């Protein structure tokens, strides 16, 4: 096995909604409100738009609206409606850490591993979520598409985190998410570990088809996964550091 395949994990990139953050379906509700606000009435067009929204969960929200409407002004208006609707959900207390998420992040960082949150939300919405959950000090970095270049499934969010956090090799990255777009982003970025979780949008079959190296019930299982031999024949990616902090 090459040195590249046995590098310890230096960085874990975690998606937010559906992976580390639960919202009781507020993302889809916000999309519905935005589509309705754009003047799309009941009927086949609206149904097709909602199918597209479900199929592209995890991608940049503004890019979803650009695909739906094909007009920049209309797309931006719909995106603003979406962001307002989702921020109301945050303010109402509907958004909360998924079980085990905070503990998993703390466990990862206790080994010296860096943790970055990635999302398709805007900077404003991302920041409101971080403030509501008191997570600003829990992670090393949180990135949105507008800060990285392009959103998922492009590799920009992961690569921007690698650059900003000084990671030496993309093979030393684990990417974790609940959607095919999350895992495709990780694959394109060169992450060795791409773990899908079953707490959000996509099922195990779709996550596997998108390139998942592992499928977990939740992000709470991630520290244990990374402490074990996640690559065939390899010592756990940060097992030595993990055992040290458990003593």
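Sequence proposed for the structure above (247 residues):
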């Amino acid at each position: 096995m090459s040195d590249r395949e046995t590098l310890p994990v230096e960085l874990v990139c975690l998606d937010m909604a559906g992976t580390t953050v639960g919202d009781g379906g507020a993302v889809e509700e916000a999309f519905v409100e935005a589509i309705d606000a754009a003047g799309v009435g009941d009927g086949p067009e609206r149904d097709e738009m909602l199918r597209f929204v479900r199929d592209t969960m995890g991608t940049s929200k503004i890019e979803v609206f650009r695909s739906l409407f094909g007009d920049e002004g209309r797309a931006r208006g719909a995106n603003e409606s979406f962001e307002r609707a989702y921020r109301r959900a945050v303010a109402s207390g509907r958004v909360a850490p998924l079980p085990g998420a905070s503990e998993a992040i703390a466990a990862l960082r206790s080994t010296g591993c860096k943790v970055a949150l990635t999302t398709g939300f805007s900077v404003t919405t991302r920041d409101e979520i971080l403030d509501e959950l008191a997570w600003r000090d829990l992670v090393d970095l949180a990135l949105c598409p507008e800060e990285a270049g392009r959103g998922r499934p492009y590799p920009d969010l992961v690569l921007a985190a690698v650059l900003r956090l000084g990671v030496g090799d993309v093979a030393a990255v684990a990417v974790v998410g609940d959607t095919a777009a999350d895992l495709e982003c990780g694959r394109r970025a060169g992450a060795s570990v791409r773990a899908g979780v079953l707490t959000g949008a996509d099922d195990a079959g779709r996550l596997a088809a998108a390139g998942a190296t592992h499928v977990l019930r939740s992000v709470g299982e991630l520290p244990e996964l990374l402490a074990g031999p996640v690559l065939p024949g390899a010592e756990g990616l940060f097992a030595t550091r993990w055992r040290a902090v458990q003593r």
